[in-house]
Amino acid sequence: MVVSMLRVIFELPETTSIKDKRRVVSAAKEALRRKFRLSAAEIDLQDSLRFAELGAALVSNSKNFGETVMAKALSFLEDGLDLKIHNAEIHSEQY
Length: 95
Description:
With 95 residues, this protein is α+β, with helices and mostly antiparallel strands. It contains two helices and four strands; from the N terminus they run E-H-E-E-H-E.
């Protein structure tokens, strides 16, 4: 069993309230769940208006497959949702 993980920090310069931020973060999480079948959650920076940190995970039988899906998900966040990515990490662990 291989668990592939994506950790991404992105900037939200247009948000003016926590409510605006939650709307954008929720849309990103739902898009990752629907399009890539990933488990996704906001994992840090909940009190920041300008930044958000999401984590996503996928269980598969191949490190290559999992990391390919995570790379596509990262590209989707950048291009499809037009988020400004500050830091992103893709990592897999075998169990």
